[in-house]
Amino acid sequence: MVESKEIIQETDEPVLWNHSFQLLLVASGIAALGASLVSPILDTLVGPFGVSPDRIGLVISALFAPAIVLNPIIGLVIDRYRRKPVLVVGLVLFGIAGSLIAFTTDFRTALVLRFLQGCGFSATIPVAVTLISDLYSTETQATAQGFRLASAGLFQFVFPIIGSLLVIFSWRAPFLIYALSLPIALFVYLYFEEENRHNDSRDGKPISLDSSTGLTLLLQQRQIAALVLAHGLVYVPQMGFLTYNSIIIVRALDGKPIHSGVLMAVVSITLAITATQAGRISGFFSNPIAPLFLGNLLLGGGLFMFSSAPNVLVAAFGVVGLGAGIGVLGSLFRSRLGNIAPAENRGVVMTINESVVMISFTFTPIVIGFLTSPLVESVGLVDAVRLVLIAVSVCVATLIPILIGLGFPDDFSSMIPPR
Q1: Domain segments of the chain as ranges
Q2: Cβ(117)–Cβ(382) under 8 Å?
């Protein structure tokens, strides 16, 4: 039996010096490579797998699809039993299935392996997010969740570059990077200390739910539902940018593919920096939801500026705002959810939250493509993409504050100056 210790409510020890937390950072980082490691080399995979370019994108969709269904189930399992074994199994499955893709040229087999890797992905990042919520109290959790996002951003910045270099020698080589999750799983198994979750209380007045209430009652809680839906919207602009970055930069602004790659790196770096500072940013505001509005302004404004940019430089400034908005909102939404959810249901809450994020990842490119198609004949591809992305930025920037206001009416009303 792993020795457990009480949840860290107050500590002078820097967040990063906690060894269990360090293991969660590395586990989250390797899992974050699920899509970002493969995305830059998709064109290279068309030949070996013998498929058309429009079908090779299924390699990405196959990874995210399992999480939509599995995340809530995993949440129930880790609330009823323990979190650490699920994380270990997830890392092992993620690494083995991902690495085995290097040894096949059959596209269907590759998709099955990616689906299995997606099952491992479902048992990794959501569980790591939940464990961080277990590990840290309100005062430090925003910072801790920020470091987790920063770790993912760092992995997504470094390893795709390594993968792009390795593919020069063989298209198989980048997939072997996924094997790094196997020693990580071993270290988690040996050294991670799962926290004592009994009698855990956050934010003074945690939402009280009996463990038998299930998913329906959880989603009926106004604050949880508002945060989960608003957090899912955060990643709609990100996926819009990732999908149409090259079209805006290369076709609309006469840039080069290297410029698109640089902007991808800028998003990751900006996200990493702001995510680590989310707790500090939150400390500047007396109203707990005020920093969410700041992040929303950066998110929507960043995509708007990128989509309407007259040149690459202006687009770069927009991308900085986009990355900053994702970093701030991603950290604070997860932190807020972890604080208001009681220990006995926290796994369900956090994994439902990650399922909604996966829905955004999976369906945003499809929906944007559906909206763009009717406009192409009348205004052309470039302007159609610009118009749809601008509309997305406005809609997201409008819906997130509405959801926050519905979930936290008292905090929202206190932000409105009296007449």
Answers
A1: 12-195, 202-419
A2: no
pLDDT tens per residue across span 225-239? 888 899 999 999 988
Q: List the beta strands (DSSP E) in 236-315.
A: none
Q: What is the DSSP string of 325-345?
A: HHHHHHHHHHHHHHHHS-GGG
- Read off the pLDDT band of 314 (50, 70, 90): very high
- Hey, what CATH topology would domain 12-195 get? Growth Hormone; Chain: A; (1.20.1250)
DSSP assignment of 106-155:
-HHHHHHHHHHHHHHHHTTHHHHHHHHHHHB-HHHHHHHHHHHHHHHHHH
Average pLDDT score over residue span 293-322: 94
pLDDT at 135 over 90: no
Q: How many CA atoms lie within 13 A of 163 on its CB side?
A: 26
Which of the 8 DSSP states describes residue 8?
Answer: B
SS3 content of the chain, % helix, strand, coil (to 5): 80, 0, 20
